[in-house]
Amino acid sequence: EDEQIVAEIMGRRFFPDLITHKTWEGFHFAGHEIRITEATDCYGAVVWPSALVLCYFLETNSKQCNLVDKNVIEIGAGTGLVSIVASLLGAFVTATDLPELLGNLQHNVLRNTKQKCKHQPCVKELSWGIDLEKNFPRSSCHFDYIMAADVVYHHPFLDELLLTFDHLCKNDTVILWAMKFRLEKENRFVDRFQMLFDLEMISNFPSLNIALYKAMRKGRMKA
Protein backbone atom coordinates (compact mmCIF):
# COMPACT_ATOMS: atom_id res chain seq x y z
CA GLU A 1 0.00 0.00 0.00
CA ASP A 2 2.84 2.37 0.86
CA GLU A 3 4.52 1.79 -2.49
CA GLN A 4 1.26 2.25 -4.41
CA ILE A 5 0.46 5.59 -2.76
CA VAL A 6 4.06 6.80 -3.06
CA ALA A 7 3.98 5.94 -6.77
CA GLU A 8 0.76 7.96 -7.10
CA ILE A 9 2.28 10.93 -5.24
CA MET A 10 5.50 10.91 -7.26
CA GLY A 11 3.47 10.45 -10.42
CA ARG A 12 2.17 13.98 -9.94
CA ARG A 13 5.57 15.31 -11.01
CA PHE A 14 6.51 15.88 -14.63
CA PHE A 15 9.49 17.42 -16.38
CA PRO A 16 9.75 19.72 -19.40
CA ASP A 17 10.02 18.09 -22.81
CA LEU A 18 12.58 20.66 -23.88
CA ILE A 19 15.54 21.99 -21.92
CA THR A 20 15.10 25.69 -21.21
CA HIS A 21 17.35 28.36 -19.75
CA LYS A 22 15.47 28.12 -16.45
CA THR A 23 15.32 24.97 -14.34
CA TRP A 24 11.75 23.99 -13.56
CA GLU A 25 9.63 21.03 -12.63
CA GLY A 26 5.95 20.47 -13.24
CA PHE A 27 3.29 19.04 -10.96
CA HIS A 28 -0.38 18.08 -11.30
CA PHE A 29 -2.44 19.02 -8.25
CA ALA A 30 -5.89 20.48 -7.62
CA GLY A 31 -6.81 20.13 -11.29
CA HIS A 32 -3.98 22.37 -12.46
CA GLU A 33 -0.59 22.06 -14.06
CA ILE A 34 1.84 23.79 -11.73
CA ARG A 35 5.26 24.88 -12.94
CA ILE A 36 7.88 25.50 -10.30
CA THR A 37 11.16 27.31 -10.96
CA GLU A 38 13.99 25.94 -8.85
CA ALA A 39 17.56 26.79 -8.02
CA THR A 40 19.84 23.82 -7.39
CA ASP A 41 22.33 25.82 -5.31
CA CYS A 42 19.92 26.48 -2.43
CA TYR A 43 18.07 24.05 -0.14
CA GLY A 44 15.10 26.40 0.06
CA ALA A 45 14.60 26.63 -3.70
CA VAL A 46 14.13 22.91 -4.40
CA VAL A 47 10.92 20.88 -4.21
CA TRP A 48 11.41 18.11 -1.64
CA PRO A 49 9.25 14.94 -1.47
CA SER A 50 7.65 16.06 1.82
CA ALA A 51 5.98 18.91 -0.06
CA LEU A 52 4.45 16.43 -2.53
CA VAL A 53 3.17 14.30 0.36
CA LEU A 54 1.47 17.31 1.94
CA CYS A 55 0.01 18.50 -1.39
CA TYR A 56 -1.35 15.02 -2.09
CA PHE A 57 -3.01 14.95 1.33
CA LEU A 58 -4.59 18.38 0.82
CA GLU A 59 -6.03 17.36 -2.54
CA THR A 60 -7.27 13.89 -1.62
CA ASN A 61 -8.75 14.99 1.73
CA SER A 62 -10.40 18.20 0.55
CA LYS A 63 -13.72 17.28 2.19
CA GLN A 64 -12.33 16.44 5.63
CA CYS A 65 -9.79 19.28 5.37
CA ASN A 66 -11.84 21.94 3.58
CA LEU A 67 -9.57 24.90 2.85
CA VAL A 68 -12.16 27.13 1.19
CA ASP A 69 -11.97 30.61 2.77
CA LYS A 70 -9.60 29.32 5.46
CA ASN A 71 -6.64 31.43 6.56
CA VAL A 72 -3.44 29.47 5.97
CA ILE A 73 0.20 30.26 6.61
CA GLU A 74 3.05 28.14 5.27
CA ILE A 75 6.36 28.44 7.06
CA GLY A 76 9.49 27.61 5.11
CA ALA A 77 7.49 27.76 1.89
CA GLY A 78 10.59 27.43 -0.31
CA THR A 79 9.45 27.16 -3.92
CA GLY A 80 5.82 27.66 -2.90
CA LEU A 81 4.28 24.39 -4.10
CA VAL A 82 2.25 23.74 -0.93
CA SER A 83 1.07 27.36 -0.78
CA ILE A 84 0.04 27.22 -4.43
CA VAL A 85 -1.98 24.02 -3.96
CA ALA A 86 -3.67 25.40 -0.84
CA SER A 87 -4.56 28.55 -2.79
CA LEU A 88 -5.98 26.54 -5.68
CA LEU A 89 -8.11 24.67 -3.13
CA GLY A 90 -9.70 27.94 -2.00
CA ALA A 91 -7.62 29.11 0.96
CA PHE A 92 -6.33 32.59 1.67
CA VAL A 93 -2.61 31.82 1.93
CA THR A 94 0.39 33.62 3.34
CA ALA A 95 3.57 31.99 2.01
CA THR A 96 6.64 32.79 4.10
CA ASP A 97 10.37 32.22 3.98
CA LEU A 98 13.75 33.92 4.34
CA PRO A 99 14.30 37.20 2.46
CA GLU A 100 16.74 35.69 -0.04
CA LEU A 101 14.09 33.18 -1.16
CA LEU A 102 11.19 35.59 -1.59
CA GLY A 103 11.95 36.54 -5.21
CA ASN A 104 11.70 32.98 -6.51
CA LEU A 105 8.81 32.22 -4.16
CA GLN A 106 6.85 35.25 -5.39
CA HIS A 107 7.55 34.31 -9.01
CA ASN A 108 6.21 30.78 -8.55
CA VAL A 109 3.17 31.82 -6.54
CA LEU A 110 2.14 34.54 -8.98
CA ARG A 111 2.78 32.42 -12.05
CA ASN A 112 0.60 29.57 -10.81
CA THR A 113 -2.23 31.36 -9.01
CA LYS A 114 -2.98 34.58 -10.90
CA GLN A 115 -6.64 34.56 -12.02
CA LYS A 116 -6.92 30.91 -10.90
CA CYS A 117 -7.68 31.29 -7.20
CA LYS A 118 -10.55 32.60 -5.12
CA HIS A 119 -8.05 34.48 -2.95
CA GLN A 120 -4.76 35.76 -4.31
CA PRO A 121 -2.03 34.49 -1.94
CA CYS A 122 0.54 36.83 -0.45
CA VAL A 123 4.26 36.30 0.10
CA LYS A 124 5.87 37.59 3.26
CA GLU A 125 9.25 37.41 4.94
CA LEU A 126 9.47 35.24 8.03
CA SER A 127 12.80 34.48 9.66
CA TRP A 128 12.00 31.97 12.39
CA GLY A 129 11.96 33.45 15.86
CA ILE A 130 12.70 37.01 14.72
CA ASP A 131 10.27 39.96 15.08
CA LEU A 132 7.33 37.57 15.38
CA GLU A 133 5.09 39.92 17.35
CA LYS A 134 6.00 42.87 15.12
CA ASN A 135 5.30 41.08 11.84
CA PHE A 136 2.58 38.67 13.01
CA PRO A 137 0.91 40.27 16.06
CA ARG A 138 -1.06 37.79 18.14
CA SER A 139 -3.97 40.21 18.50
CA SER A 140 -4.68 40.45 14.76
CA CYS A 141 -3.18 37.33 13.15
CA HIS A 142 -5.34 34.23 13.26
CA PHE A 143 -4.53 31.22 11.12
CA ASP A 144 -6.84 28.25 10.70
CA TYR A 145 -3.92 26.16 9.44
CA ILE A 146 -0.15 26.27 9.72
CA MET A 147 1.54 24.18 7.05
CA ALA A 148 5.14 23.05 6.96
CA ALA A 149 7.01 20.58 4.75
CA ASP A 150 10.57 19.50 5.50
CA VAL A 151 11.37 22.34 7.87
CA VAL A 152 13.21 20.05 10.31
CA TYR A 153 16.67 19.07 9.09
CA HIS A 154 20.28 19.74 10.08
CA HIS A 155 20.12 23.50 10.71
CA PRO A 156 20.88 25.57 13.84
CA PHE A 157 17.43 27.15 14.14
CA LEU A 158 15.31 24.38 15.63
CA ASP A 159 14.70 26.43 18.79
CA GLU A 160 13.52 29.35 16.68
CA LEU A 161 11.32 27.06 14.61
CA LEU A 162 9.56 25.78 17.71
CA LEU A 163 9.13 29.36 18.94
CA THR A 164 7.56 30.26 15.59
CA PHE A 165 5.07 27.38 15.73
CA ASP A 166 4.17 28.45 19.28
CA HIS A 167 3.68 32.10 18.33
CA LEU A 168 1.52 31.48 15.27
CA CYS A 169 -0.68 28.74 16.73
CA LYS A 170 -3.94 29.71 18.41
CA ASN A 171 -6.09 27.26 20.39
CA ASP A 172 -8.10 26.27 17.29
CA THR A 173 -5.23 26.33 14.78
CA VAL A 174 -4.42 23.04 13.04
CA ILE A 175 -0.81 22.31 12.13
CA LEU A 176 -0.16 20.06 9.12
CA TRP A 177 3.48 19.09 9.07
CA ALA A 178 5.28 16.68 6.73
CA MET A 179 8.66 15.54 8.06
CA LYS A 180 11.43 13.43 6.62
CA PHE A 181 13.33 11.58 9.33
CA ARG A 182 17.08 11.91 8.96
CA LEU A 183 19.31 12.28 12.03
CA GLU A 184 18.67 11.76 15.72
CA LYS A 185 19.13 15.45 16.58
CA GLU A 186 16.34 16.46 14.23
CA ASN A 187 14.19 13.53 15.31
CA ARG A 188 14.41 14.72 18.93
CA PHE A 189 12.64 17.89 17.77
CA VAL A 190 9.45 15.83 17.68
CA ASP A 191 9.75 15.15 21.41
CA ARG A 192 10.19 18.85 22.13
CA PHE A 193 7.31 19.71 19.84
CA GLN A 194 5.06 17.38 21.81
CA MET A 195 5.68 19.35 24.99
CA LEU A 196 3.52 22.12 23.48
CA PHE A 197 1.28 20.29 21.01
CA ASP A 198 -0.74 17.11 20.72
CA LEU A 199 0.58 15.23 17.72
CA GLU A 200 -1.19 12.67 15.54
CA MET A 201 0.44 10.84 12.66
CA ILE A 202 -2.11 10.83 9.84
CA SER A 203 0.04 9.28 7.10
CA ASN A 204 3.29 7.35 7.08
CA PHE A 205 5.44 6.49 4.09
CA PRO A 206 8.33 4.22 5.18
CA SER A 207 9.75 3.99 1.67
CA LEU A 208 10.27 7.77 1.72
CA ASN A 209 11.01 7.94 5.46
CA ILE A 210 8.35 10.66 5.64
CA ALA A 211 5.52 11.07 8.12
CA LEU A 212 2.61 13.50 7.92
CA TYR A 213 1.38 14.91 11.20
CA LYS A 214 -1.62 16.82 12.42
CA ALA A 215 -1.08 18.86 15.59
CA MET A 216 -2.97 21.25 17.86
CA ARG A 217 -2.27 22.89 21.19
CA LYS A 218 -2.25 20.55 24.16
CA GLY A 219 -5.77 19.47 25.10
CA ARG A 220 -7.37 20.87 21.92
CA MET A 221 -7.17 17.89 19.57
CA LYS A 222 -10.26 16.07 20.87
CA ALA A 223 -12.06 19.27 21.80
UniProtKB/TrEMBL annotation:
| Domain of life (superkingdom) | Eukaryota
Q: Its GO biological process terms?
A: methylation
Q: Is Metal-binding among the key words of this record? A: no
Keyword list, A-Z: Methyltransferase, S-adenosyl-L-methionine, Transferase
The answer to keyword Methyltransferase applying to this record is yes
Please name the GO terms that the record assigns under molecular function.
Answer: methyltransferase activity
Return the PANTHER family for the record. HEPATOCELLULAR CARCINOMA-ASSOCIATED ANTIGEN (PTHR14614), METHYLTRANSFERASE-LIKE PROTEIN 21E PSEUDOGENE-RELATED (PTHR14614:SF1)
Stated name of the protein: MT21E methyltransferase
Which gene name does the record give?
A: Mettl21e
